[in-house]
Sequence to fold (124 residues):
Amino acid sequence: VQLVESGGGLAQPGGSLRLSCAASGFTFTNYAMSWARQAPGKGLEWVSTISSGGSMTYYADSVRGRFTISRDNAKNTVYLQMNSLKPDDTALYYCGKEKNAFMVRTVAAGYDYWGQGTQATVSS
Fold:
């Protein structure tokens, strides 16, 4: 299993970033995928989850209405569109693969593989 995140960078408050996660080594269409983040000095925080087919999405209260998760099963890629960014969104963002096929969990403990992360920094 390999998960490779990209798309992080520096954005101003109120700006946008789009993160991508390219997956390989497993049957992507069978697994829910999630994004989680870790801010400096803090623990891993679950951000968002999308079901294997993409019909169900879930968000942490802190990002609901500002972030959108999506996936392209033909490209084995999951995305996180981040709008109306705030300084509190500054973190290392990871994508993760659900442990069990066709299950959907919204806790980081339910995921067995994570990528190396991509840094998003929100600052003026």
